[in-house]
């Protein structure tokens, strides 16, 4: 069988295929050549090795009165089940998604953006947007009959996989770089997952997992289940539109790690428009955010290059985004260019400044990756790329308590004093 990322299916999996196609999922298709496949655990095309993505019967979805179905659904990402590749009645769900879209008036005032919103993903069960993709991927893994789930992770994904696997009664094996933030290691290990730390970069971890899919009959959520996993990211855009009264924003700012979140957000808005769910025509401009220490997409955008050249040894406190060779990097670059957006890169100092800015203006404590998003937002607003007349949404994807090491001593006690009123008066 061709394709290094196609799992050698067991007889149990072959039997399961007959019952795993959700109501509107037709199968998989290649993003490059259009070749089609059954809905099965594979991520690459046999013909051109291009990435695969789910195909839906959108005409049937439209005929189903999908908006009524959505609005009657649970207050979780599974309200969008007609546009997801798995069945809600078997969902592995910890209450994922449907987090707040916050009107960011104070932050907007500082940046000159009166119509600014922050999509706050810190409220998810394991405090990052990765809960969305994992809920979909593990639901699909269980439909396929897998009993072990695995992933390559920069931290948040490992946390989400471990927690959801524990809830579903599945074995979890998660692979992470050995220099990952200790809080994220703890957050995966506490659920009983086997945590394998690799002496290398995330790209080394990912390469090992791709090889391991040929040797172990496991569901690697971001390898052989990647087409289904990535679809969970769409729900962040579906919610944005619904929470804006079924309108698409004018401009969104999205952090780039693998690039899948950004590309799926773009696809989601187009899908909503194709289904007639938006009250106005969608012309969303999409901008990306990267750290200076891991900036392959930002560098390609700035230079006008067509190819995204890998960063061999990422060096940034934003470890969630430290993917030097992003799988969807080229597609993210094209999405930003075609939509009229941009890709900004943010220095280490500005990342920390942006974390503090969001916290003191909006009461949201984001991890370093969120500092990259807010730093890029501020940068692009200052350059006039993001305009004051636009409705803007910034995606804050994870909780700050996960990345305390990255802030150093920046956020510390104002002063240590003795327990006397005289000493207090000197401080306040």
Could you characterize the architecture of this molecule?
The protein is α/β, with parallel strands linked by helices and about 425 residues long. About 35% of the residues lie in helices and about 15% in strands. The protein contains 16 helices and 13 strands. It has helices at about 10-15, 60-65, 65-70, 105-110, 130-145, 155-170, 180-190, 200-210, 225-230, 235-245, 260-275, 295-305, 330-340, 350-360, 370-380, 420-425, and strands spanning about 25-30, 35, 50-55, 100-105, 115-120, 150, 170-175, 195-200, 220, 250-255, 285-290, 345, 390-395. The chain has a 6-stranded mixed sheet, with helices on both faces. It is globular, with a radius of gyration of 21 Å. The model is unreliable at about 1-20 (pLDDT under 50).
Helix content: 25-40%
Spatial extent as radius of gyration: 21 Å
The beta-strand count equals 13
What profile does the largest beta sheet have? 6 strands, mixed
What does the oligomeric state look like here? Answer: single chain
